[in-house]
Each structure stands twice: as C-alpha cells, then as structure tokens.
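Run log // design_07
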C-alpha cells in the first residue's frame, strides 16, 4: 500500500464486499470457530448471524498492537459487544476466551471440539423450520439497523492511519516477533 487511495480501495473493494455478502445474505450465516480467531477472524464472527466456538478457542482484536486498526470491528462489533467490551478488545488486544465470548454475546454456543459439526447440523435443522421468506425478512430488518453505521468513513480513517509511520513500525515489529 503506497497511497491513501490504495489503502481505502483495499478495504472498500476487497474486504468490505466479503462482509457485506455475509451481512446481506438472505440465508443465515454461521461462524464455526475451531481455534484462535485474530483480527478479521473475530470480525467474521461478529458479522455472522450465529457463532459456535470450541472450548479452547479465543478471540483477539490485536490490530491496535500491530499498528493497523480494527475497522470492521468498530462498525459491526458495537451492536454485538457494546461500547465498553468493544473498547476493551480493541485497545488491549487481549485474548478473550470462548466462555467470555459467550458471556459477552459474541458467540451463541461453546462446545467440545468433537461436537462442533453435530451442533452446526442441529442448528441448521432448527433454522430450516423458519420459512425462507420469513428468514429473509428477518435478516433484511436486522440489516436496516446495521446500515445506519457508516462503514465507508470508518474504512477511510483506518486506511489513513495505515499509511502513518506509527502503523508501519507496528506492522514491522509484529512481523519480526512472529
């Protein structure tokens, strides 16, 4: 990324469409978390309609430590986590256990690893009892509430920061440590 436009376009042209596809899908999207979820993995969990995690999973929005911002988490995380939990995650980058994520409302279920697939199958069966038309209407109503969030300006702010020397040094430090 060499310019502000490159940074904004990366978010707007490549990352945002994936998340909008999840959010605007007429069918429920289930996140199955089977281990650590960092950054975009957490954001995908936040964007999903339902989420199931195995007991040893954890979640970390460590982009702040790395030197880039959690753009999507700032937008879609607020209605899921609330202001204080979201700020805790993005400002500390600490690992949130599956149990904490459940208590915070980030995930719907915590299961044993061996039971994950069975849980997903059962939830899909239960959801299939709701008609496709009603499911679409429910998701449309929910999306209208989320559409009040201005994603584009959040992406622009994070893109601008990603060009700073502070962001570049954080990314370099993170890469050297890992």
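design_07 sequence
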């Amino acid at each position: 990324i060499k310019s502000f436009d490159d940074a904004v376009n990366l978010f707007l042209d490549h990352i945002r469409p994936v998340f909008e596809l999840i959010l605007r899908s007429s069918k429920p999207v289930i996140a199955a978390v089977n281990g650590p979820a960092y950054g975009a993995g957490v954001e995908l969990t936040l964007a999903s309609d339902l989420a199931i995690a195995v007991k040893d999973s954890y979640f970390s929005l460590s982009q702040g430590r790395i030197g880039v911002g959690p753009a999507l988490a700032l937008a879609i995380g607020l209605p899921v986590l609330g202001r204080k939990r979201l700020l805790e995650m993005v400002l500390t980058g600490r690992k949130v256990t599956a149990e904490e994520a459940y208590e915070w409302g980030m995930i719907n279920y915590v299961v044993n690893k061996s039971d994950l697939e069975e849980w997903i199958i059962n939830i899909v069966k239960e959801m299939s009892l709701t008609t496709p038309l009603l499911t679409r209407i429910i998701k449309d109503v929910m999306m209208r509430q989320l559409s009040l969030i201005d994603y584009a300006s959040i992406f622009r702010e994070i893109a601008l920061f990603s060009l700073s020397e502070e962001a570049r040094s954080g990314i370099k430090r993170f890469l050297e440590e890992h």
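The chain has ten helices and six strands.
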